[in-house]
Design brief:
- This protein has 263 residues and is mainly alpha-helical.
- The protein has one domain.
- Helices cover 62% and strands 3% of the residues.
- The protein has a two-stranded antiparallel ribbon with strand order 1-2.
- The longest helix has 25 residues.
- 44% of the residues are buried.
């Protein structure tokens, strides 16, 4: 005979539906954390307001001095006004790379003066004049294609002005990430190598076309002169006369109507 007094019943647990829900929530939390880890590296370094202001400034660039001023403001936004990064070897190297990349993209993205602006940018940044004349003359028509080609953006169905702005904003994201990468990797190797790796890593996230078009591959990483570094540091402190780049680019230029004036 079975002794009922010797039977020990298991301690009752939560109903099956409750256990199932608890397990689901556990896995859901793990998946969310994994998703956040995967997407965090693609988040922009800057806040939305800073991105918007810098993108608008980028679109207004019409000369080398304005380009250098924009790069100074971009660096300041990432590193802070009190940072000495602009005067470092890595800072001058990444500034030179960003200047080269910006010079290649401005004839397509920015509001430069058609063919003449493209030719002027080509002279300043060492690019192919014929290519930039053509890009400048077809600015509006090329905006959508350039968005996909350089940045992987699908911007169909919006105006040319909005496409240009979104491309400018994506360049700001790329530049900010490149500066942040370079800042984080300071001292880990030769300055040219550190700057190039920082730019390539940023391009993989925000501007893959810069790699496939070999724009970064051809970008010079010559160091700026001491005078240029001082001007870059001054820009980071807010006087607007900064230069983040230097090396072998020479001369100054600006647009006047449909004419590029070289100094």
């Amino acid at each position: 005979m079975h002794d009922i007094d010797q039977v020990q019943l298991e301690e009752p647990g939560p109903p099956f539906a409750v256990r199932e829900r608890q397990e689901y929530e556990q896995y859901e939390d793990e998946d969310l954390l994994e998703y956040e880890d995967e997407t965090s590296e693609y988040e922009s370094v800057l806040d939305e307001n800073s991105e918007t202001e810098l993108a608008a400034q980028f679109l207004e660039v019409s000369g080398e001095q304005e380009l250098e001023h924009f790069l100074g403001d971009l660096l300041q936004s990432v590193t802070g006004a009190a940072s000495d990064f602009a005067r470092s070897r890595e800072g001058r190297q990444i500034g030179g790379i960003l200047k080269q990349a910006a010079g290649r993209l401005l004839p397509v993205v920015g509001q430069a003066a058609g063919r003449a602006a493209g030719a002027g940018l080509a002279r300043v940044t060492g690019g192919n004049r014929g290519r930039y004349r053509k890009a400048g003359g077809q600015l509006g028509a090329a905006a959508g294609r350039a968005a996909k080609r350089y940045f992987g953006l699908e911007l169909e169905g919006i105006s040319a002005e909005d496409r240009e702005f979104e491309m400018a904003r994506q360049f700001v994201r790329f530049g900010a990430k490149a500066i942040r990468n370079c800042l984080d990797r300071m001292g880990t190797g030769p300055a040219p190598q550190v700057a190039r790796q920082a730019a390539v890593s940023a391009a993989e996230q925000f501007a893959p076309g810069l790699l496939t078009e070999e724009i970064l591959a051809s970008a010079r990483t010559a160091r700026s002169s001491p005078a240029s570094a001082k001007r870059a540091d001054a820009s980071a402190r807010g006087n607007g006369n900064g230069c983040l780049c230097g090396g072998k680019s020479s001369g100054r230029w600006e647009t006047r109507g449909n004419t590029i004036v070289l100094f």
